[in-house]
Amino acid sequence: MKKSILTLASALLVAFSASAQKVEFEEYDLSNGMHVILHQDNSAPIVTVGVMYHVGSKDEETGKTGMAHFYEHLLFTGTKNIERATWREIQSNRGASGNANTNWDRTYYYQTLPSNELKLALWMESERLLHPIIDQKAIDTQNEVVKEEKRQRLDNAPYGKIIYGDIYKHIFDKHNYGRPLIGFIEDLDGASLEEFQDFYKKWYMPNNAVLVITGDFEKGDTKKLVEQYFAPIPSRTKPNVVKITEPKRTTEKRVKEYDSNIQLPIIGLAYVTPSMKERDAKVLDVISTVLSNGKSSRLYKKMVDDKKNALQAFSFARALEDYSVYLVAAMHTGKLPVNDLIKDMDEEILKIQTELISDEDLQKVRNQFENTFVSSNDNVEDIAASLATNYMLVGDTNRINKELEIINSITKEEIREVAKKYLGKNSRVVIEYLPASQKK
To answer: Where in this chain does the record put each Peptidase M16 C-terminal domain (predicted)?
Structure first.
């Protein structure tokens, strides 16, 4: 009886949290095709303005890689009406902060500032779209910035190729997700000013963007400002995007990747998994949590605590628009044969594929996702990014309010079947990530 009462209490807590955390929003389109999402929250005098463009590194042409990430930097140079190199100074002087980030599917620019500066943020973002400085001086300056970023994050950062997806070249045989997110530096060095300008004209248009505003504002006034600053920007014909189909892997592939910045090797099992739009992607998130989220997870307990043949065990899914990537991995001392480590990981994967997880494990997973859900919706900056992502890449803005519902509806049987479907030995790439000193 006590167990039933606790189960009921847990269910009520989840229901209460989901209700309390519901994100209210309004969305509509401008006449030029720009999508607008408004989430009003007047609890604190701050506001976030974000603009996400549906272009990432997967959209680049062969021989012209790196453009998407390059623009993340280039569009902070200045505009026709914002003096060169003063963008961040203007923000700082008004108590604002801002940044941008790029992945394989989209590029996102955002700024958070006192709510009485909303007009400034909208003007600056409209300027970024309408009148950016794209000249040789800006390109030469940002080229050095990008090279330094590559040195810091990839060339000189321990395990940087895993963190920033450079190992995806081994996982994707055909899809552009296999290209470096940052691009090939030789492509950027060889690109002409005209090619940089052409990339902007091809992708940066209001009808290929979503504008999101979250925080302390009044809808009526804000809609007028949005209309004033963004509606006059002309739309253009969007490029025809052809989805690249990644062939299904039917035999295991084994590769080695070397890193001069590490002392301890990692062995990883990598899989191509479904788009972030699909329910199975969420099921794989649950599987990842069971396998390796925290010291009580299965891989950690087995490989780190019990056998002590690994210093760390982890798995994660990187959710992307066309496909996702799922990695199960262990950091080890290099003293144990690789196949023994793989055997340990395979045993735990097999259990997920053949046995139903316990009620306790399922409830623990739900609790962990609830905590993540609550923390991800506790500030307007994170809510802005989530709303934009769900609209643009998932195709459902209200997915922000469905996450817990989806997680709580996943069954033990479903977990078993999804593990069988995607985590087969013949569909994976085994990656040995090794210190460069071991390279023969």
So the answer is: 192-368
For residues 299 and 292, the answer to whether their CB atoms sit within 8 Å is yes
- pLDDT tens-digit map of 123-151: 999 999 999 999 999 999 999 999 999 99
Burial of 43 (0-12, 13-18, 19+ CB in 10 A): exposed
Nearest CA-CA partner of 110 in 97, 119, 95, 123 = 97
The CB density around residue 32, as the number of other CB atoms within 10 Å, is 16
pLDDT tens for 414-423 read: 999 999 999 9
All CATH 3.30.830.10 domain ranges of the chain, comma separated, are 23-230, 253-438
Give the N- to C-terminal CA distance of the chain in Å, as an integer. Answer: 63
By C-alpha distance, which of 246, 269, 266, 244 is closest to 257? 266
Q: Tell me how far apart the alpha carbons of residues 58 and 203 are, in angstroms, rounded to a whole number.
A: 13
Query: With DSSP H G I counted as helix, E B as strand and the rest as coil, what are the percentages for the chain, rounded to 5?
Result: 50, 20, 30
d(CA 144, CA 363): 49
Q: Strand 97-102 to strand 266-273: parallel, antiparallel, or no bridges (unpaired)?
A: unpaired
Q: Indicate the pTM of the whole model.
A: 0.93
* Whether CATH 3.30.830.10 fits 23-230: yes
